[in-house]
Automatic annotation (TrEMBL):
Domain SOS1/NGEF-like PH as annotated: residue spans: 3-118
A GO cellular component entry from the record: plasma membrane
One annotated GO molecular function: guanyl-nucleotide exchange factor activity
Example of a GO biological process term: axon guidance
Gene3D superfamilies according to UniProt: Pleckstrin-homology domain (PH domain)/Phosphotyrosine-binding domain (PTB)
Name recorded for this polypeptide: ARHGP factor
InterPro entries, per the entry: PH-like_dom_sf, RhoGEF_Guanine_NuclExch_SF, SOS1_NGEF_PH
Region (Disordered) residue spans: 137-172
Lineage, top ranks: Eukaryota, Metazoa, Chordata, Craniata, Vertebrata
Keyword tags: Guanine-nucleotide releasing factor
Residues annotated as signal peptide: none
Source organism per UniProt: Crocuta crocuta
């Protein structure tokens, strides 16, 4: 498929990756892989040499991928802050496990945090789809519209998995509908407000 269909690129780093081989068992040796985290997929690739005709731009060969909808995370393997595992559930119920390792614990921890946020957003979205009224009720109890820290349109996990855009409280979700401006408590609009035309 097209990379543009996979959503926004959220991160990329080079890891030492132990990949599953035929039969689902982990390879006995790891390989250096460039890993790309998109909103909808994680792609494992192998870096090519300096590019076409010595150009500075790097090239990559696709090796494997995990769809975010099938993604699982195991952080800090064996207590090591530089190692974590990404898992992929197969259609038959089998699980493929990719162990990623880097020399910099900050890189590993940033990936663990980012993937955990994606999985939490996915879980919130699924809960909202399965029980929309209960989900709205629970969210309204923990968040107040129009107050700092409250529900913001476009905040992670509130509209759709991976949505990272921060939208102001008066931007319309649907351009064909009028916008809603939420004023701070006690403040009154003095003049008619123009509609957003985004």
């Amino acid at each position: 498929g097209k990379l543009t269909a996979q959503g926004k690129l959220l991160g990329q780093d080079t890891f030492w990756v132990t990949e599953p081989e035929a039969g689902g068992l982990l390879s006995s040796r790891g390989r250096e892989r460039r890993v790309f985290l998109f909103e909808q997929i994680i792609i494992f690739s192998e870096a090519l040499g300096g590019g076409v005709r010595g150009a500075a731009q790097a090239g990559y060969v696709y090796k494997s991928s995990i769809k975010v909808s099938c993604l699982g995370l195991e952080g800090n393997l064996q207590g090591d802050p530089c190692r974590f595992a990404l898992t992929s559930r197969g259609p038959e119920g089998g699980v493929q496990r990719y162990v990623l390792q880097t020399a910099d614990p900050a890189v590993s921890q940033a990936w663990i945090k980012q993937v955990a946020q994606i999985l939490e957003s996915q879980r919130d979205f699924l809960n909202a789809l399965q029980s929309p009224i209960e989900y709205q009720r629970r969210e309204s109890q923990t968040n107040s519209l129009g107050r700092p820290g409250g529900l913001r349109v476009g905040s992670p996990g509130r509209i759709r998995p991976g949505d990272r855009a921060q939208v102001s409280t008066h931007a319309p979700i649907n351009g064909s509908l009028p916008s809603l401006l939420l004023l701070p408590k006690g403040e009154v609009a003095r003049a008619p407000l123009p509609l957003d035309t985004q």
